């Protein structure tokens, strides 16, 4: 059986935590930040975990598990 290739875009966007969960960063933080309020930028700067609904798709893209 051939090796499952890792999706190149997924490996740049997601990180695996020590407990096996998958971490992601928020969108809308790359450019045109001058019109955004400081509070919104501060809240978007935090990372969060992948939801259970998307977990299977992301794991398949990263080549983790089944």
CATH class: Few Secondary Structures
Shape, per Cα inertia axes:
elongated
What is the count of β-strands? 3
CATH-scheme architecture:
Irregular
Number of helices: 3
* Element pattern in H and E: HEEHEH
Structural class by secondary-structure content = alpha+beta
Task: Give the C-alpha Rg.
Answer: 15 Å
Per CATH, what is the topology? Factor Xa Inhibitor
The biggest sheet amounts to: 3 strands, antiparallel
Strand content: 5-15%
Question: Order of strands side by side in the largest beta sheet?
Answer: 1-2-3
Spans where pLDDT lies below 50 across 5 or more residues: none
Q: Considering DSSP H and I runs of 4 or more, what fraction of the residues is helical? A: 25-40%
Features:
single chain; alpha+beta; Factor Xa Inhibitor; 12% strand
Description:
This protein has helices spanning 8-13, 38-44, 52-62; strands at residues 14-16, 22-24, 48-49. It is an alpha+beta fold. The chain has a single domain (8-62), classed as Irregular (Factor Xa Inhibitor), CATH 4.10.410.60. Strands 1-2-3 form a 3-stranded antiparallel beta sheet. The model has no long low-confidence stretch (mean pLDDT 92).
List the helices and strands and how they pair.
Blueprint: H1 8-13, E1 14-16, E2 22-24, H2 38-44, E3 48-49, H3 52-62
Antiparallel strand pairs: 1-2, 2-3
Protein name: Large ribosomal subunit protein bL35
Family: Belongs to the bacterial ribosomal protein bL35 family.
Pfam families: Ribosomal_L35p
């Amino acid at each position: 059986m051939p090796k499952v290739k890792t999706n190149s875009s997924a490996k740049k966007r997601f990180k695996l935590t020590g407990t096996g969960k998958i971490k992601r960063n928020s969108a809308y933080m790359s450019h045109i930040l001058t019109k955004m309020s400081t509070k919104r930028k501060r809240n978007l700067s935090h990372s969060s975990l992948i939801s259970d609904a998307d977990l299977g798709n992301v794991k398949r893209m990263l080549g983790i598990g089944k």
